[in-house]
Every structure is written in structure tokens, then in C-alpha cells.
Amino acid sequence: MSKTSLCSFFRRRGAGPDGCSHGEGVPGISYAAAKKKKGMTVGFVTFENIEQLTNAVEVLKENRSGGKEMKIVDANRRSHQKLRTEGTASGNGAATENSIAAAPADGTSGPEVAIASIRTVRDAVTPLAHMTYKDQLEHKKNSVAQLLKKLTRNAKKACPYGVPLPEWISESKQIGGLSCKLEGILESPVIDGYRNKCEFSVGHSLAGKKTVGFMLGNFREGVTAVEEPVDCPNVSGISSKYAFIFQDFLQLSTLPVWNRVDNSGFWRQFTVREGRSPAQAVVAQDAETQISEVMIIVQVCSTGIDELLMKDEFAKLSMTLVQGAATCSPPLPLTTIVVQDHTGISNVAAADCPLIPLLVRKVGQSEEGAVDQTRIHDHISNLRFSLSPTAFFQVNTLAAERLYTLAGDWASLNSDTLLFDVCCGTGTIGLTLAHRVGMVVGIEMNEAAVLDAQRNALINGIKNCSFVCGKAENVMGSLLTEYLGSPQQHLVVSESNSEVGATGKNEDIVDGTKNNGETMDSSMEKNDNGESQQLGDKSDDHLSSSDEINGDLGDRVSKQLEGGHDQSNVANGNQNSEEASSFINEESIATKSADCLEHTKTLGDGSSVSNNDTLAATACQFKNFVAIVDPPRAGLHPTVIKVLRTHPRIRRLVYISCNPDTLVANAIELCTPTSENREKNKGHRAWRNMSSAGLARQRTKSMPSSEPFVPKRAMAVDLFPHTSHCEMVMLFER
């Protein structure tokens, strides 16, 4: 039942004719508000007084909706409001706010049953914590194996009639039905307290207390109770301590916490981001002692709140956090405090939500000496990454190092490789692998993330990376054509420059040099596996002028081809990237990053600022073209899959997935043979109820004729101990 039909149900039984204005109609069921989200089996109805509630319960017990009995229960998740309003009477002697939850009585659990089904917050957040870590790994490995079997079954179903089955499907019986060899699971170096980012919900507990922690369930189940992060092994001690400091502050705050039922309140979410020092980044023991920087992000909703009152609350909050950090033993690191003003209903804030940095003053320090910044730093493979408040960064830093090394090994990278880093975020994958390839091209839709990636390239002295700002589905086709030539004619890049100039592309290119695709030298360092890793020479020579960013193409390409990587080996003597980066002026880096983004806007006619002759000359130097994709949980857009599948020069693809279900769906489209009789993809209403694998099978019918990829190997990587989630890496070749 949708929200509209829920309201209609009440109107049919005598509620006011004005729909959701309610309470002004003929006698019958009167109510203040009715709410139900799509897919929920629980609806929420709020009444203005006790008389309305009592009357509604009597009517609902005697009437059925569509022949189904309605189960009426108290909305336990709002017990804090009942406690607060108990004894508070309105003019007619009734309580001012009352609510019930209406749910079908066909066995579906109501809110109180959903809450009772979760024993503790530990069970909700870390459902595998009761298992030994060895058993957790085996459980996840078996889950991934089932998904590989699912891929085989669905790809077999998707094969067109009359087309021979691919060998990998025919041979799957020899390996237990798996689509490729599962090479095990890579365990996390840190098992407890590994998260470098913890997002705590703000709300009321079942007992009605203002609480900072985790929800016991989800709103779809009718649960909004928040409980303290007690005994959650994936949460670091520092994050937990800050959560309790903020919770104590809320008890004295005059502003309300967020109410998920009527989407009102001020304090919404509390996030702690942690950055580790470089010298300790490879030490797995006692992860908490490695944290050197902390960013606090407080999400609020300023709707209807007086500005002066907010400023006063923010000043108190800043002082509370600073004093709380200082009084802990040992003192907690605190680098920056940022307020995010999110006025929308969804829990996920838009990328353009206003960010307000708060002054961080040490105890006893004057306001003039306070620090106002919005960044912290973390390290992967001895590279220093600057992180803005909304930047994506893997939550398990040490396990991410292993993940990226694995992806680079499977991609068979060398100096003749042009690597496309699709959905690159802040550039972590491309930058950590840049020393192993000739050139990296990153694609990311978030402009702030692209600026972060550009900044990180500058900080680490990496000059063979360029970053494209745009949705992958909008820019991937023209980008591959620009670098590799037309997939239809399989032309060399130099022969397709005129075509590329005509098509153009709608993206911004941010390059560490002149944004024209040239390749450059990079510096190197050793990671914990003994392999060469980048560590740029961070002297002022690299960043002193815009010429370093917008340098001459010929010089840059010649440096790359004449041994730029050999020269970079000299930088290996520097073991501490943070010490080297101390010579960098952060403001200068920010300015240059912004200038790069601004100088590479597309022209008015839609063509790219990048020199196509330059791209052709640069791309022709490479013989190996590889793509590494790391999409969000929804997976790759169908257009991106089609572009990668139909371009014959992409011979190897490494897929990193945080949601193996969507990886299976994407793999079906990448690996299923095409039919000579291609169907036009018209879509169908029935597709709405299909699984992701079912949709993928339908889309394969309209895939242009092209050579399919073959799944070669897969491995799970445990980035999230104690939870049911894990990353999955899969290699595709053709």
C-alpha cells in the first residue's frame, strides 16, 4: 500500500476531504498525518489527540483494507515522544502528540517485532562478530563461490539460441560450476577497530534518550531507534569516544535531534574520519595508536532554526569536542570540525551540501590562533592522500593496500600500459599504480573528488596521471575514441583524430601537467611487499610555477619515453612522504588544482580543450590498454559496459566490486556472446520487478556484435571483518 492509498483508506472511512491536511472533515477517522514509504509493510499514522487515536483504532478493528485485516500497534520507535509528552495536556486535556503504526496482520512483524529480532546493536552492525575470524573468511568465501555459480547459470541462459556456449561455461563443471577459478579470500591485516570512517546516527533510544550510535534496524522495517556503539568490534576506540562526547553534548543542547518519522529536527548525523601517519601505515597491530589526524563532520538541518542560535550551538559544540579530546587519556587527536547543512529527507546528502568549517582551538588558545581547515591526510602505499569531508576513501586503509596491489598484479601492468581508472574517486587506485604504467586516465563524476585526485597527484609528485570529470556513461565512449580510435574501424589514434575532433566530449579534463594526455616520470618507493611504489620528490621545483602544471608536451613525453621511471628511482631514499610534503604549500596546491579544472573546461562548440594530435602521439606510445573499474554498489552503468565490451583494444579488465551481486549482473553483459539478430532494447514494464541478473540477460539481447570477455580468476578481499560484506576482484580477458 502506497502512502497515497494509505491516506485514501482513511479518507474512505470518514477523514477530512482535504487529504493530508486532515482533521477537518466529517465525523469518522480524523488524523494529523499518514506516512508510508514504497516497499514498506508498515504505515505510520499520527493523531492530534487521544480521541482521534481511540476512534481510529475502533474503526480499523472493524474494517478491513482490501480484505486484509490491519494490525494496530504503538509506534515504539517514538517512545521518547510519548515519554516527553506524558502529562503534557492540550486545551482539551489530551496529550498533544500520539501515534500508532498500522501493519498487515498476515504474519508480517510490526516495529516492535523488528526491534526485538535484533538483540543488540552489535548484532545489527557486526552480524558475524560471534564467529571466529577464520570462520568468517570461510563464510564469505562460500558466498562468493555461490555468486560465481550464479554467473555461470545466468550467462548460460543469456546465450542466444544457435550460438555455441563459450568454453568457460562448458568447462565450469570441472570446477564445481564456478565461472572461473576462485583463488580464495585475502584477509584483512587489522580485524578490530579497522574503520577509518564511522557514521553515527543521531536519534532516540528505545528508552527515549538522545543517543549517538547505530540504528537497530532500518526504516523500511519500521525501526528508527538508535543505540550506543557498545561492543562493536569494527569501530575504533577514538571514534567511539567522540560519539559519547557528542552524545553528552546533545543532552544539554536546546536544539532537537532528528526525527525520522516526520523528518524534523536539527542534529542528524555525526561522522568521525581518521588519518594514519605514514611511518606506521604498514603496522597492523594496535591500529588506534597510528591515528594522527581526525576530522569531525556534524550533519544538521537548518530549516526553521534561528541563525544566531545555530552559531551559539556550534561554538559550544566546538569547545566541547576540543575539551573532551584533551581530557581523554591519552588525548585524542583533533584536526578539523566541519558542519554539513543537509535539508533534504534522504539520509544521503547531496555533493553540493554547504560545508561550514568550525575553528578548532586548543585548550587555553586564543581565537586568533585557532585552526580553520577542512582536510585531513591518510596514507596508502607510502603515498599521502588529502581528504576533503565528502571524499570517498576505503574505510579499511591497510586492507585497501592489499586490494590495490592485487588489482595491479592481475592487470599485468608495465611501462607500455595505458590504464583507465573508471570511477576513480580521489584517485587512490590510479595513483598507487601510476609508477607501474606509462599513463593513467581517471574518470570520476564528482568534481570535488577530481580536485582531490589532482591535489593528491601534486602532493606526491606524480605526473603521469590525468583525471576526467564527468559521468562515466557520458564520457567513456568519446574518451576511448579519443585515446584509442574508433572501435568500429579499429583505427590507430593518429588516423582518427579528425573524427574525435568532430565528436568532442562533455567533460572537464584535469591533468597533472597540461591536461593533454602527455606521460611523465614518477617517483618510487617500496611497499610492504617489497614492490616499487610511488613516492614523489616533493621539492619546490615540482610545484613552483604553473609551467610545472601546464608544461611543454614534447618535454614531458620525452621524459616518459627516455627513462622518466629510471630517474624516479632516485627518490627511493626518502622514506617519509609526510616529511617530504612539508615543503608544499597547501594553498598553492589548492589554487593550482582549481586552475587545472578551470583551464580544461570544454569549448563552446563541445570540443575538448585537449589537443587531439597530442593524445594521438601519446597513446601511440602504448601497446597495452587496461581498464580497472571500481563502481559504487549499483555497479557499472549499462552504457559503460557496452563501451568497454565493444572497443576491441581493451583486452583486459579488472573489476573491483563492493557488491558482488551487481558484479555478476555486469559480468553477464561483458561475457555473454552476441547474436547476429540483435534485438532493439525497448524496455518493458515487467523489467521493474526483475533481478539485476535478469535485467542483464535482457540487455545482452541488444548488445552490439563484439568479442565477449572471459572471466579468468576471482578473489574475495575482506575489507569489512565482522560483517557479511567483502570486496570481490575479478579479472576479465579476451
Comma- or semicolon-separated keywords:
734 residues; alpha+beta; seven-stranded mixed beta sheet; 24 strands; 23 helices
Summarize the entry for a quick read.
The chain has 734 residues and is α+β, with helices and mostly antiparallel strands. The chain is 32% helix and 18% strand. The radius of gyration is 28 Å and the shape is globular.
What does this structure look like?
- The protein has 734 residues and is an alpha+beta fold.
- Strand 21, helix 21 (638-646) and strand 22 (652-657) form a beta-alpha-beta unit.
- Helix 13 (472-484) packs parallel to helix 21 (638-646).
Strand content: 15-25%
Question: Ends: how far apart?
Answer: 48 Å
Give the overall pLDDT as a whole number.
Answer: 75
Q: Count the helices. How many?
A: 23
Oligomer: single chain
Q: C-alpha Rg, in Å?
A: 28 Å
Structural category: alpha+beta
- Kindly report the spatial arrangement of strands forming the biggest sheet: 5-23-24-22-21-15-16-17-18
Number of strands: 24
Helix content class: 25-40%
Morphology: globular
Low-confidence stretches: 15-27, 77-116, 491-584, 599-612
